[in-house]
Amino acid sequence: MTEITENQVGLPPAVERFILHWGDMGGQWGVNRSVAQIHALLYLSERPLPAEEIAQQLGIARSNVSTSLKELLGWRLIERVPMPGDRRDHFRAEADIWEIVTRISQVRKEREIDPAAQVLRRCLEDAEGDPRISPLAMKRLAAMMEFIEMVDRWYGQMIRLPKTQAMTLLKMGNRIVSYLVPGERNSAAKGRKG
């Protein structure tokens, strides 16, 4: 068995449901389901867990757990924790949701957005002055580059904000949208009341 399935192990139903869902979400984001499930288990665990216990609780092969832990360490979503009197490695997940989101977004940006932006820049350089490139293609490449650069600047600004200010900005989202989109004032007011 390579991953947890419904009612496979004796985890509380809410924990099992969260682990299953986190695994599904990871799969949708291009992350191995087992990696996401291990992260979910460690995130909800009250204590650091050794690899053997992770494998047992999730019904995942020990070799798969080892590979998955290395990936999670690479993303800096978990850390090794020494335990007195135990020579085995134990693992604990980052518990601060803001840190988790920040680390995931940073790695995804480095692996996906930055290389895409580099290729797009080269495409624009190569297209410049090439008579075979239509004005429409040039316009669309330039528009895509402008959008990627704008998102990159926004990401840089958000990542530099102190956590408290970033959370305040996120919480203000409904109110900001209510001023920008006609008819949204009533739904934002309802959201504050509820």
Radius of gyration: 22 Å
What is the CATH superfamily of the largest domain?
Answer: Winged helix-like DNA-binding domain superfamily/Winged helix DNA-binding domain
Our count of helices gives 9
Number of strands: 3
State the CATH topology of the largest domain.
Arc Repressor Mutant, subunit A
Strand order of the largest sheet: 1-3-2
Which residues sit in consecutive blocks of at least 5 with pLDDT less than 50? Answer: none
**What overall geometry do the principal axes of the alpha carbons give?**
extended
| Total domain count | 2
Fraction of residues in H or I helices: 55-70%
Q: Would you mind describing this structure in some detail?
A:
This protein folds into 2 domains: 13-93, Winged helix-like DNA-binding domain superfamily/Winged helix DNA-binding domain (Arc Repressor Mutant, subunit A), CATH 1.10.10.10; 97-169. Strands 1-3-2 form a 3-stranded antiparallel beta sheet. The model has no long low-confidence stretch (mean pLDDT 88). It contains 9 helices and 3 strands; from the N terminus they run ααβααββααααα. Helix content is 69%, strand content 8%. It is mainly α. Strand 2 and strand 3 (86-93) form a beta hairpin.
